[in-house]
Amino acid sequence: MPLNIPGLLVPFHLIINPRLVLPSIIVKDIRQLDFKELRKAGYRGAVFDKDNCLTLPHEDALVPELKDAWRECREAFGTGNVLVVSNSAGTRLDPGEIQAESVTYQLSVPVLRHKSFKPSYSCISAIRKYFRSLPKPLEEHELIIVGDRIFTDIALANRMTRSTKHSAAISVSEKEKHDVQLHEYSREVNTRTGPLAIWTDGVWKKENMALRWMESSLMHGLLRLLDGKTKFELSEGLSRFVKPIPPPHIVEKTSLLSRLLGRLRGAS
Ligand SMILES: [Mg+2]
Question: Which of 10, 11, 135, 193 has the fewest CB atoms inside 10 Å of its own CB, making it the most exposed?
């Protein structure tokens, strides 16, 4: 597998935007997500990673344990509003788009065709184009983005977040009004809107474990540095989207040789 250059460049982007790798929600797997609640809250579409999120790496079939959750997701959002964005199926690594067709058949949702790996801006453009071409177009803030890799899936979601400036009223006391002699009391505030970034930290088959450890350590380090938190805390407004942790699943083991090869290949 070729190197994922957009993924490898993420640490440099952190210098400008250290929050790039911070998810909004962390779950073990998609069984913990309450899709009906997300839909009720105004989220109308979903982007899912494939490998180690919905399927075993390099396989096309849904992990059997996720069958009910996946059905609930498609029922909540509607099949056309759920999109798989993979760094394998639907990319240049998928000649003839055979794997993309197979995944679409197995998961019953479309697979995005894109030229550049997640989290590239070219891939983000392709995602935007897809959701804007729907009969009822969707904007970024109406999406959830779910994946098992911080440097690809979470960075992709956070890169889709945009700042918008608008005026907001300021509460000014009568004395202050007198002092400053102003008639209008408003200022520009920045509001950031974008998709909900959801990290699934459970793996169905061990792959790139050293890189995963590094991504997770960096994410937790930044949480400590930026917010003074020793562990990830779900904000109160988001807790209604998360169900209890499902029973543990058996992680498939890979040989030492394939683990070493996986580490050498880098982010996928
Ligand atoms: Mg993955």
Answer: 135
User: Cα 209 to the chain's mean position, in Å?
Assistant: 19
Q: What pLDDT digit, counting tens, does each position of 11-44 carry?
A: 878 888 899 999 999 999 999 999 999 999 999 9
Residue linked to tokens 């989290």: 119
- Tokens matching residue 67: 């069958």
Query: Which residue reads 């509607």 in tokens?
Result: 78
Structural domain includes residue 268: no
Partners of 106 in the beta sheet?
Answer: none
Neighbouring residues of the ion ligand 1, judged by CB less than 5 Å = 49, 51-52, 148
49 & 80 share domain: yes
Mean pLDDT of the chain: 88
Same domain, 140 and 224: yes
Are 202 and 89 part of one and the same domain? yes
From ligand 1's centre to the CA of 3, what distance in Å?
15
79-105 average pLDDT score? 95
Whether 153 contacts 118, CB under 8 Å: yes
Choose between 184 and 207: higher pLDDT. 207
Burial 113-133 (b: 16+ CB within 10 A, else e): ebebbbbbeebbebbbebbee
What integer pLDDT is reported at residue 183 of this predicted model? 44
Q: Tens digit of pLDDT for each residue in 238-262?
A: 999 999 987 776 666 666 677 777 6
Together in a domain, 71 and 170: no
Q: Are residues 155 and 173 in the same domain?
A: no
How far, in Å, CA of 66 to CA of 70, rounded? 6
Number of domains in the chain: 2
| 238 alpha carbon – ligand 1 mean position (Å) | 23
